[in-house]
Amino acid sequence: MFRTDGISNRSLTFTLIVLYLCATLQFIRYYSKTTTFYLNMNAYLNGHERLPFQERILPILILRPLTHSQWITQHLVHANGMYTAERGPFYVISLCGLLLAGIFVQRLYNRVTRSGTLSFLVYPIFLFAIMWSYSIHNEANFSYPYDILSVAFFTAGLYYIYMKQFLPLVFIMVLGTLNRETTLFLIGIYLLDAASTSYSEATRTLRKRFSWSQVSWARVGLLVFLWLGIKLLLAHVFAHNDNSENYIRISENFGRLKPRLWPALLNICGYMLPVVFVLRRDLRPRRFANYLYIFPLWFVVMFYTGVIVETRVYGELCSFVAIAIVLIMEYRIEHLRQRVPARVADPGIPYGRLADMEQ
Known about the structure:
By secondary structure, the chain is mainly α. It contains 18 helices and 2 strands. It has one domain (9-342, 350-358). It has helices at residues 9-34, 41-45, 58-67, 70-75, 87-112, 122-134, 147-162, 166-179, 184-195, 206-209, 217-237, 250-255, 262-265, 273-278, 286-289, 294-305, 318-345, 351-358; strands at residues 36-37, 142-143.
């Protein structure tokens, strides 16, 4: 899982895994205890919650048996109400979702990295992004049963897109859309990936980085058909549910652009997504970097229908951002290593001149 050098590879890997598991358990415990449930869980499990929340039905299939589980009742519903009958199953579903997301984050990183130098940093940076996105809030500190599962499905989708494995991607699209409709953005990333050209590594112009003629539009059409079909079916099933919160929020979100809320607005993936944008030229491989172009569309959609200070609406991007940050650091380290020998060979070369020579 982790690429390390030295005699104690197994010991180090084992130690890291234990520490990361402890950190995961600690975070999920805190997250499950301190965040506020926005849903009426009883109404949600019985199909009577408000829209659009009720249409995200996959967690119901998991939470119902967990709610009636004797093991959950005996082992998690304890500690003076720390885990109530609602929070015990929520803890389990969130923990499983985060572990699954972590596995796919590491697998995706292993496929895109050139050196693997900083593989041990991928999961802690991912967990850092998740913590800020889902639990460190002053405004809208809400949690939903489908949130962490969405990260898992989205990360798995990224992995299968990069690996060009279409059938597993279709499976993820179906399950993930039943969980939350943000799988729509996986279709956009699939398009960006399919259109990426071999020129991507050598050019900065969008015109040469993408060729839409090489996209399999039949596959794109199938993904759109699946997403739209599931959404329309769920809309029909829950057509009589309360629709008072399913509305356009553009005017509300303009009101949230005030400077007082900038710390909350910029808390996208632990404040790291803006950093990735600034350093995007250092992100390799370019094919993976091209996925970054989905964010403007993501922001527009959330500005239209979401609450922009509720940074969990960007939470699925945590996996991409964590990997991107590590890849940028690896690129800079490699670039620095290439500069140091030239500097040692001729100490009189100014750093500015050295940069000019490298170009």
